[in-house]
Amino acid sequence: MAHPIYLQRVRQRIFMKSNELEEIITAALENFYHRRIDRLSKLRLKDTLRKKNPYLFRAIGVYKADEIVELILQAYMSSSDETIFGDAFFEPIAKSVSGGMVSPSEGVDIVIETEEIYKAISVKSGTNIFNASQSKRLDDEFGKLRSRTMKLHKQFDVVLAHSYGHIGGTRSTQYIYRRIAG
Questions:
Q1: Cβ neighbours of residue 104 under 8 Å, at least 6 residues apart?
Q2: Which of 75, 99, 123 is the endpoint of a domain?
Q3: What is the DSSP letter of 90?
Q4: pLDDT over 80 (residue 135)
Q5: Which residues contact 121 (CB under 8 A, 6 or more apart)?
Q6: How far apart, in whole angstroms, are the C-alpha atoms of residue 114 and residue 110?
Q7: pLDDT score, position 10
Q8: 87 and 119 co-located in one domain
Q9: 57 lies in the same domain as 81
C-alpha cells in the first residue's frame, strides 16, 4: 500500500498551479544550459577530429578547415543535446509534474504508486526513440519490473512517454504499454 503522504503529494500534483510549473521548467532549462555549456567546455577538438573520416568531408564537398570544424561541432552538440535534454530537462519536468519518484529499475525512469496502481514510465526525448534492439530491451525491462511488482497485487500500468513526435502506428509487444507524446 502506498504511503498516505505520497498519495497526498500525487493528488496535489494533479492540480499544479501554472507558476509552479513555470518554476519547474525554468529550473530544468537552467540545468540544461549549464550542462550543455559544461559539455562544450570539456570538448577537445583534437580528440574529436581523430574520430572523423577526412575523406567523408571531401566527398560531401567540404574543403576548408573552418567548415570541417564547424560541421564536427554541430554534429557533436546535436547528439549531446539530445541526451542532455532528456536527462536535464524533460525527465525532471515529467517527474515533478507526475508526482512520481525515480525508478529503482533500469530502463524505467519514473514510478507512481497508488493504492491500486503501480505505474512505470520510461521517458524518451527524441523523434526516433527506438531501433529494434532498444525496443526489445525496453520490453524485457518492463517484463522484469512486472515480475518483481506482482507481489504488490496492483494493476501494472506501463507508459512510454516521449517529448517530441507523434504516436504513429501500433506495435505488437509482449508487454502492452501506452505511448504518450507531446
A1: 111
A2: 99
A3: I
A4: no
A5: 94, 98, 100, 103, 108, 109, 110, 111, 112, 158, 159, 160, 161
A6: 13
A7: 47
A8: no
A9: yes
Task: Specify which residues 128 forms β-bridges with.
Answer: none
CB 84 within 8 A of CB 39: yes
Cell numbers 496535489: residue: 12
Q: Which domain holds residue 108?
A: 101-182
pLDDT at 178 over 70: yes
Of all residues in the chain, what percent carry a pLDDT higher than 70?
A: 79
Measured in degrees and rounded to the nearest 5, phi and psi for residue 150 equal -60, -30
CA dihedral 53, 67, 34, 165 (to 10 degrees): -80
Looking from the CA of 56 toward its CB, the CA atoms found within 13 Å total 7
C-alpha cell at position 143: 517484463
Q: Report the SS3 class of residue 36.
A: helix
CA distances 81 to 37, 78, 174, Å, are 10, 5, 32
Question: What is the C-alpha separation between 112 and 48, in angstroms, rounded?
Answer: 41
- In what helix (H) or strand (E) does residue 121 lie, and over which residues does it extend? strand 117-124
pTM of the model: 0.66
Band (pLDDT 50/70/90 cuts) for residue 109 is confident
CATH number where 168 lies: 3.40.1560.10
Length of the chain equals: 182
Predicted pLDDT at 129: 60
Residue 93, amino acid? I
